[in-house]
Each structure stands twice: as structure tokens, then as C-alpha cells.
Amino acid sequence: MQATNIFTVSQLNQRAKQLLEVSFANVRVEGEISNLSRPSSGHWYFTLKDSGAQVRCAMFRSRTALLKFMPKEGDKVELRAKVSLYENRGDYQLIVDAMKPAGEGALLLAFQQLKDRLAMAGLFDEQYKQPLPSVRRVGIITSPTGAAIHDMLTVFRRRCPAIEIDIYPTPVQGRDATAHIVAAIERANRDNNVDVLIIGRGGGSLEDLWCFNEEAVAWAIHQSRLPIVSAVGHEVDFTIADFVADARAPTPSAAAELLSPDQGQQLRQIQLIRQRLNRAMQRQLQQQQQRLLRIQQRLRAPGRLLQSRAQHLDQLEIRLQRAQQQNLQQRHHRLQKLQQALVHQHPQRLLRERQQQVALLEKQFTRLIQQRLNQRQQQLATQAHLLNSLSPLNVLGRGYSITQQADGRVVQQTADVSVGTRIHSRLHSGWLESDVVAVHTDNAATQTDSVKKTRTRKAPRKKTSED
């Protein structure tokens, strides 16, 4: 063998990698996923196996982001990949470009997974459905150039021209459609100018309608204060938005019909026209999608060296994670032992005894306070009774009265008043106002009249503090 035919290991692996990538640039492989690993870089590494063999696979972040479902251990999948070689270890592997569940479309699986998750969260419950109000103004969230808006406006104009229409233009297909639909719902709720919202578009494939199956759109519909009618696709098409909305219309035209008076014959004619247009659009979209797929298959992705480095970095990260996990387990075992030792020395028993003593002292203290309070109440009652017996009001109750001058001074002797003085007599109930017509001492009268006359008049009772 000549020296020129001797390869280094690196050269041999590089040559083998080139041959594999050229010879198997686009293959489809079906098998079962095992040893699935998802490091923080976003790349996925797993083994694809069947009953007789297995092969290592790598799917880089730029491709995993395009998947509509989340694969797991044991899933049977169909891959579109190219055969390559990981030069650092000489491992034969598949670089995966696309993945879908074997025997079922990826979008259908993703649809069912999201539907189950939102159903468990309660977004489909009837208790959250709002009744549709009487409509004077309708907001429509859809594409301003699509057939759906044309159909709905036609139905509204024909059936009830008095209904006002607010259009919130938004794309209803593609990656950006989800964010635009959510923003339109939030804007309509902020404006609060319409009675009800219609969210819809014409028919299409499951992929075309996918923005109405996004979780963000579902939560925006659920949180809307305005009632929402979902009108997406054909009658046979169901989206997540249909299940969350307050009402579902099988078509956009049916949504307009639902919110306006009924004229069946003209509506059926419009539906037939719309269905033919949708089928034509669907055929055109499918043709364009097939053309785009063929172009994508002919393209060769750059950056193979970068992917190889990224794969090596991911392997190192996986090893580091395993080492960290082992260290955490050891520290966890040590913590458990320390906790057990602490339990044995816990002062719980002594604490319970002290708590019982405190409770007993509390009862004794409460009883003593109650006894002292009862004694003080009895003393207060006795003093109040004694005070009441000495009250002047009790004397008045026995037929006596208190005489006062006009300035409030009490009349104690005849010298305190003279003839003509105005006096007030306080009785047990009420008082009298009098004028003095005669004054007598203990020896003789000061007036010549032998008859004492007093002009009196009953005065209205004044409410005093004694009353």
C-alpha cells in the first residue's frame, strides 16, 4: 500500500460523512423514539429503533421549532432526514429535517393534545358561555381581503342593513396570524363599541386554519368580556376557537345569519358560491405548498460544522447535568439523615407540658377576674340604691315641692320674696309658675287681706337633666 492512500482517522470520517450525505441526502425512516434528550440549546437527540436495529438521530433547534406536536419516549414517528456521520466519535446518525407521528398527521395530534389540556383547564365549560345579546353593532375579526368578510358583509346588508359593522383587519393564516388575532380581540374589548365579535375565515386545510388552534387565541377568547362567535372554515371544520367561543357558526356566512334575521334561500346560494371559491383556493394553496416543499427539498442547509460543534457541546451539557443530579441526590440523602436526627432531639414533649400549664393558669386567672368583677358590681348596685334613696326627686314624690325665684335661687324664707315676685314651684311631675300676692311670717301677715290669693297658671313641662 502506498503512503498516499493512508488516511488519518479524521480524514476517513470526513470522507465517509461526505459519501453518506451525498448518497442519502433525503430519506424517510419510520421507527420508535427512545433515549430522548432535550438540552437547553433546543436541539434534540434520540435513538430511532425497530425490532431489529437502531440508529442515532439529531434534530437541531431550527427544525424542532417547526413541529406542531411534542414527541415523547415510545412514540412511533416518521422522519425525513439525511444520513451523516458524527466525526468526533465516528457515529453513524440521522440529521432530522422533519418529523410527524406515524399513521397520524402531526397537526391532528397537536390539535388533540391542546384540546385535552384546555378542556382540563375548564375553557370549554358551559358556565363560561355568554348569551348572545340583541345586536346593533358587530365587530368582525378577519382578513379584510378574504372571501369570508365579503360573505358576512353581504349577508348583513341583505338581511339587516341597520346593523353597523366594525372590521378589525388581521391575517388569518401563517405564523403572525396568532399574535394579530389576540391583539384584535384585546383591542375590541378596550374600545367596547360593539355588542358581539365574530372571529372567522373561510375554509382551508388543517394547517391553513392552525392559527385558530393556538393556545394564545383560546385564552384571549376565554378572557373576552364581549361575546364571541367563532366562524372558522367549513361546517365540517372544527378548531379550538369553536370550543372556547360563546357560540359556533359552521361558516362565516352562518355567523352573520345567526346575528341577523333569517332568509334561508338567499343564504344557501351564497354558501354554494363560497364553497366553490374555497375549494378553488384550497386547490391553489395545495399546489403552492407542494411546489414549496419540492424547493425546500432541493436546498442544502449550510453550517454543518456549526451543527457538529453544537452537538458536541450538547453532549458535554448532558454529562454535566448527570453529574449535578448525582451530587444533588447525595446531598439529599445527607439532609434526610440530619432531619431524622433532629426529630429524635425535638423538644415537642416538653413544649406540650408547658402549653398545658399555661392553659391551666389561664383558666384560673379568668375565674379570679370574674369573681372580682362580680364583687365590684354588687358594691356598685348597693351605692346606687343608697344614692337613689337620698335623691330630692323622691322627696317630691311624697307631695313636697321646691320653690325657686326667676333667677333659679331656691326660696328658703319669706324674706327672699315680696308681693308681685314671680316664682316657680318644682313638683314631682312638672312645675308651676306663680305671682306672690301675700307674704306671711310666723307671727302676722304683711297684707291687710285676710284671704291669701295666688294667681297660678300651669306651665308646660320643661325637660331637664333630672328627667
UniProtKB/TrEMBL annotation:
One of its GO terms (cellular component) is exodeoxyribonuclease VII complex. It is found in: Cytoplasm. GO terms for molecular function: exodeoxyribonuclease VII activity; nucleic acid binding. GO terms for biological process: DNA catabolic process. It is an enzyme of class 3 (hydrolase). It catalyses: Exonucleolytic cleavage in either 5'- to 3'- or 3'- to 5'-direction to yield nucleoside 5'-phosphates. Its EC number is 3.1.11.6. Residues 267-371 form a coiled coil. Its main location: cytoplasm. Residues 453-467 have a biased composition (Basic residues). Residues 123-434 form the Exonuclease VII large subunit C-terminal domain. The keyword DNA damage does not apply. Residues 443-467 are annotated as: Disordered. It comes from the Bacteria. Keywords: Coiled coil, Cytoplasm, Exonuclease, Hydrolase, Nuclease. Residues 7-99 form the OB-fold nucleic acid binding domain. Belongs to the XseA family. Heterooligomer composed of large and small subunits. Bidirectionally degrades single-stranded DNA into large acid-insoluble oligonucleotides, which are then degraded further into small acid-soluble oligonucleotides. This is Exodeoxyribonuclease 7 large subunit. It comes from Thalassolituus pacificus. The lineage of its organism: Bacteria, Pseudomonadati, Pseudomonadota, Gammaproteobacteria, Oceanospirillales.
